[in-house]
Fold this sequence. Notes:
The protein is mainly α. It has a single domain, classed as Ferritin, CATH 1.20.1260. The protein is 76% helix and 0% strand. The protein contains six helices and no strands. Helix 2 (13-40) packs antiparallel against helix 5 (101-126). The longest helix is centred in the C-terminal third of the chain and has 29 residues, at 131-159. The model has no long low-confidence stretch (mean pLDDT 97).
Amino acid sequence: MGTKGREIVGMDVNELVKVLNKALADEWLAYYQYWIGARVAVGQMRNAVAAELEEHAKEELEHAEMLVERILQLGGTPLLDPADWYKETNCKYEIPSDPKVKVLLAQNIRGEQCAIEVYNKLAKMTRDVDPITYNMALEILEDEVEHEEDLEALLEDLETR
Ligand code: FE
Ligand code: FE
Ligand code: MG
């Protein structure tokens, strides 16, 4: 982004980049948690659950792409070392060591609830000072709310069988 584009950001750009990088760490860990979960899942409705997890993985990767694009526009450096994902994450990584679909769903629901908080905070932080990041935060927040809802619906289907 050009000089003016950075100048209109009404908050500390370095602080903002830090927050965006923490969200980037979350997205990569969420991506892998979904991606590997889709492959190791066992139990009833395995195929339906795996398909949903696979779809969410793709969407988390898109979120990572949006964050990196914005970080670069702001003149920042996106996290370059995967070791930093564990250091910077807000939402952590839940190892799918018990691959039963109900357990995976519960883990991923917790992840989405954390993501919802992260993007809700980012939206509040940027609302009056950075319309571009604000708009991005809303877009991602919408997806995370949908993710939580999809997973809760699947869990409900499983539990009412
Ligand atoms: Fe995401
Ligand atoms: Fe999500
Ligand atoms: Mg979905």
